[in-house]
Design goal:
Number of strands: 9
Number of domains: 1
Largest sheet: 6 strands, mixed
InterPro entries: DUF4238
Structural class: alpha+beta
Order of helices and strands: EHHEHHHHHHEEEEHEEEH
Pfam family, one: DUF4238
C-alpha cells in the first residue's frame, strides 16, 4: 500500500508566499531561483504565520483577510458536521453543505505541510519535475506554493465543463487547461471534491491515529487515489472514496482492489426536494444527504491507521 501522512489541517496557514516549516531551501527546492532580494524569514515570522491568529491572512490582497473569510465559511460547515459525527447526532448535509465540506477537506489537503515538503525537498520523478518547471516558467511563478490557493476552487471548474461524463472526458478537458495552477495539483483537488463521503466508526477497542502532526492520509496506486482519510477523533474517520469504487468501475482500469473492501463503502440516502428526479437537472441545493456511521472492524482500523505512518 502506498500511503502518505500529511500535516494536521488546523496548523497550515495561507499566504501567497508561504514560509514552510523548513523555509526556502535555495537551489534544492523547486522554483527558488527568482532574481532579486528576498527577505529571509526569522523565527518570529514563522510564529506569526503559523499562529492561530489571522491563520488564512494573505498580505498580498487589498482585503488581506478575504480568503480567511471565504475559507471560514467552509470551515464552519465542516466543524458543524464533524461535531455531529462525534456527538452521535443524525448525519445530515444539504447538497450545498456537502460540496462545501468536501472543498474544505480538499483545500486542507492541498495546503498541507507534507505537500509543501515535497516541493522543498524536490521529491519528484524526473518527468514530473520537468512538467512542474515548464508550468512555472510559462506562468512566471517563482514557487508552486505562490499560486493563490483561493483560486483552486474557481480553476477547478475549468476541467468540469458541461458534458463531462467519464474520467476520459475530464482528462481531455484538463489537457486544454492553461491556468496558473499546476495540473497535477488541480486534478488532485478536482478528484477529491468529486469523491464520495463515508464515515467510519472504529469498533470498540482499537482507535484511529490522531496526532498534532498527522491527520490526513491516503491509499492509492500509480498516482491514483483510492481513498483519502481524515481523522476527526480516535473513534471516527471521514473517508473520501474514489467515485470509480463507488460506481464499481475501478476494476476497469486494471488496479488492485482497496484493502478496505466494499463493506466499508456506503452511499448516503438522498432526500430530494423535487418529487420527480429524472437526472442532474432536477437536483437542488436543498436536497438532503443522510449518512450512516460504518463500523470498521479492528483489522481495518489498524490498516487505516497504518496509512498515517510517515514514509
Amino acid at each position: 500500500m502506498r500511503a502518505i501522512a500529511s500535516g494536521n489541517f488546523t496548523e497550515v496557514p495561507f499566504s501567497k508566499g508561504p514560509v514552510g516549516s523548513k523555509g526556502n531551501s535555495g537551489g534544492d527546492s523547486v522554483g527558488s531561483s527568482r532574481k532579486g532580494n528576498r527577505r529571509k524569514s526569522s523565527g518570529s515570522d514563522v510564529s506569526r504565520v503559523y499562529g492561530l491568529q489571522n491563520m488564512y491572512q494573505d498580505i498580498a490582497e487589498v482585503d488581506s483577510m478575504r480568503f480567511e473569510k471565504e475559507l471560514a465559511k467552509l470551515e464552519c460547515t465542516s466543524a458543524t458536521f464533524i461535531h455531529k459525527i462525534r456527538s452521535g447526532e443524525e448525519l445530515l448535509l444539504t447538497r450545498t453543505q456537502l460540496a462545501d465540506f468536501k472543498r474544505f477537506l480538499a483545500i486542507m489537503t492541498y495546503r498541507s505541510e507534507r505537500r509543501r515538503e515535497q516541493y522543498y525537498e524536490c521529491r519528484f520523478d524526473i518527468m514530473t519535475l520537468l512538467s512542474i518547471r515548464k508550468h512555472m516558467s510559462q506562468n512566471n511563478i517563482d514557487r508552486v506554493q505562490d499560486t493563490p490557493h483561493d483560486e483552486i476552487i474557481k480553476e477547478s471548474s475549468a476541467i468540469d465543463p458541461k458534458g463531462v461524463k467519464t474520467p476520459m472526458d475530464t482528462m481531455f478537458a484538463l489537457s486544454k487547461y492553461k491556468g496558473p495552477i499546476y495540473v497535477a495539483e488541480l486534478m488532485d483537488y478536482y478528484n477529491l471534491v468529486c469523491n464520495y463521503v463515508c464515515v467510519w466508526q472504529a469498533e470498540e477497542g482499537p482507535e484511529f491515529i490522531l496526532t498534532d502532526k498527522c491527520s490526513v492520509g491516503f491509499e492509492g496506486e500509480d498516482a491514483i487515489h483510492f481513498q483519502s482519510f481524515y481523522v476527526v477523533s480516535p473513534k471516527y474517520m471521514v473517508v473520501l472514496v474514489n467515485r470509480l469504487y463507488m460506481w464499481d468501475l475501478m476494476k476497469t482500469v486494471g488496479l488492485r482492489k482497496s484493502w478496505s473492501g466494499g463493506e466499508l463503502h456506503a452511499n448516503p440516502v438522498v432526500i430530494n426536494t423535487k418529487k420527480l428526479v429524472r437526472g442532474a437537472k432536477d437536483f437542488t441545493p436543498t436536497d438532503v444527504f443522510k449518512f450512516k456511521r460504518i463500523v470498521a472492524p479492528k483489522e481495518k482500523v489498524y490498516l487505516g491507521s497504518s496509512s498515517f505512518w510517515v514514509e
